[in-house]
Each structure stands twice: as structure tokens, then as C-alpha cells.
């Protein structure tokens, strides 16, 4: 139980136990959580859930939200909106629009993205071997796909 990891005398975490039972990066994040001064029953809860119910959906949403915060985003909302309008107005098949959308979000299954997600160990381009296969390299940078 979480209560076992608290130091009742100081009202904070028992740093020795937290360090003993968790990996260093987990222990650091746990110690950053502020504790309530009054004693309460333990329960699993997230800001997106009602009451103390945990759901995979709410956990996934929270992880995605944290990931978006870590990624730099455009502060120019008008330019971003104009870009998306431009993509939607293109007279091309939907699959091309989807490709552009995924390329913009860096969501294509390039070797670099697969390595980042721990599916592969190397991310060098299969055609030129000298560069990592990023979205930009796969679509425009590599000489072989450029010829196609």
C-alpha cells in the first residue's frame, strides 16, 4: 500500500523505502508527488476519471497528453490552421492527404520511428545506409525514393 511508503513522523515519503523498491527514475517521480496532510484511504485515480475508478482509456489519454507536452508545438495557430485547410483542399486521393498528415505528425513507420518504439535496433536507411531513415529522409532526402 502507498501508506507503507510514507513517513508518518515527517508527513512525507520514506525516501529509503521508495529508493529500495523502485527504479531511480520511478523513485524520483514518486518523491515529486505532494502528500496530503490528512490520512486517507488509498485508491487509484486519474484526473480524467470520476471517483477512484481507473480505466485503460484514461491512462492512455494521460500518457498521450504528457507526450504532447514534451513535443514542441507551433505557437502560430493561424498558420497551422491554414496548413490543414490547404491539405484538405488538395485535389488528390485521400490516401495522399493521409500520408501528408502522418508525415507532418511524424507518425509514419520509418526506421527511426520504429527504433524509437523499440521495434528495431538500427535505423539506417536501407537504400543509402549513411543516414537515419527519418520521415523527411524517407520521403524527400534519400536519392532512391526521390527517383520514383
Detail the topology: elements first, then pairings.
Blueprint lengths: L5 E2 L4 E2 L1 H7 L2 H8 L24 H15 L6 H13 L4 H11 L6 H6 L18 H7 L1 H5 L1
Antiparallel strand pairs: 1-2
Task: Write a brief structural summary.
The protein has about 150 residues and is mainly α.
Question: What tags apply to this protein structure?
Answer:
single chain, 148 residues, mainly alpha, 2 domains, two-stranded antiparallel ribbon, 8 helices, RVT-Znf, Reverse transcriptase zinc-binding domain-containing protein
Structural class: mainly alpha
Low-confidence segments, ≥5 residues, pLDDT <50? none
Q: How much is the radius of gyration in Å?
A: 23 Å
By DSSP (H or I, 4+ residues per run), the number of helices equals: 8
Count of DSSP E strands?
A: 2
Tell me the fraction of residues in β-strands, as a range. Answer: under 5%
Largest sheet: 2 strands, antiparallel
The tally of domains stands at 2
Order of strands across the main sheet: 1-2
Describe the protein.
It is a single chain. With 148 residues, the protein is mostly helical. The protein has two domains: 1-49, no CATH class; 87-147, no CATH class. The chain is 49% helix and 3% strand. The protein is built from eight helices and two strands; from the N terminus they run ββαααααααα. The radius of gyration is 23 Å and the shape is elongated. This is Reverse transcriptase zinc-binding domain-containing protein. It comes from Castanea mollissima (Chinese chestnut). Residues 54-147 form the Reverse transcriptase zinc-binding domain.
